[in-house]
Amino acid sequence: MRIGIYEYKAPKGLIRVTVRVVDGMIEDIRIAGDFFIYPEDVVFMLENRLRGLKADPSYVGKVVEELFHSNVVESIGSSVEDFKTAILYAIKEAGEVC
Amino acid sequence: MLGVGDLRVLIYEIPDNPQKSLAFEEAMWRSLIAGIVPDTLRIWRHRNAVILGYFQFAEEEVNFDRAREIGATIVRRFTGGGAVYQDLGCLIWSIAVRGPAGGGTKFLYTDLLRGLIDALKMLGVEASIENVNDVVIETPLGRRKISGTAATFKDNYYLLHGTLLIETNLEILGSVLKVSKAKLADKKISEVKYRVANLNDALGRRFHISDIIDAIIKAYSKLLGKKPFIDMPTKEELELADKLYESKYSKPEWNLLRFPSKYFEEDIKR
Questions:
Q1: Smallest Cα–Cα separation from B149: which of B202, B209, B84, B210?
Q2: Minimal Cβ distance to A16: which of B60, B105, B151
Q3: CATH number for the domain that contains residue A45
Q4: CA angle B79, B111, B32 (to 5 degrees)
Q5: Structural domains in chain A (count)
Q6: Among A5, A16, A17, A36, which would you mutate to test the B interface (most chain B Cβ atoms within 10 Å of its Cβ)?
Q7: pTM, whole model, 2 decimals?
Q8: B103: containing domain
Q9: pLDDT tens digits, B111-140
Q10: Which ipTM score applies to this complex?
């Protein structure tokens, strides 16, 4: 089991991702910080969709993008790319990328 | 600007129970969305509280030892953004209104936030909006943040709430909140964002809280084109606030552990 933590400073707002990777799978992930995203539920939906997923950048990137594009997501000072970057770096920190 | 009707003004605070106070805030917001209360401006304070943004974890934002030492209550709010420290020297204002369809964050942080800028102008303070939702003033020592805001919206209902530092204990503020390394490394942001000031210190004059409250009421009624009337919370709001307090705002799962709002819903409805 490896834990990766990454703090990413978006133009406005800090995105702090903590991820627990077990056998190449995302066992748990939390996306925290002082960002603004609407609707707020998106954060929890994203965490839920990432749990149990293979810790592979292409899978993870796709899930993040799909969620942002299938919902009317509005954020200020942080973009889907910022969230993607924060999550991928955290996974990399955990050091179990396939 | 936003149509007819009056602006309800609630000067309603529970300074010594920030958890109840935040529960009431959510009750007020839900009541607006349910169509049972009119557009509302709320003015309130806390005696000694750390208020976390919706997406933050307490242990990442708060120096627990210091919080315990000073007896501060830690509460989460239902809007995003960063943690704040509040004592009676910090005025909290909330504006909850029906607005245009599709107004989104632009309506919140440009149009609605204008009200606070206008109120400060009435008091002779030239303030401006920076970094989307920070309110800053020029002081002899440079640019300082005097107000931070957070907001949410649902359909065409909007809520913006924020702080206004008048004479808060900045030593406590600085020691009870943690500042992340990534933020400090980002100089451009940190200079504005973490240099806060009290109105009273920054401008070398003392503001009376009643004058500030008057100005905020005047500015928002003018901005919204509505006549203000001082009111009390409704019975329904207070009952809902009690439920929200029992099921959510008194619970560590909400305040410290960041369980999603949905987790508490069933219990609130019971």
A1: B84
A2: B60
A3: 3.30.390.50
A4: 50
A5: 1
A6: A36
A7: 0.94
A8: 6-269
A9: 999 999 999 999 999 999 998 999 999 998
A10: 0.94
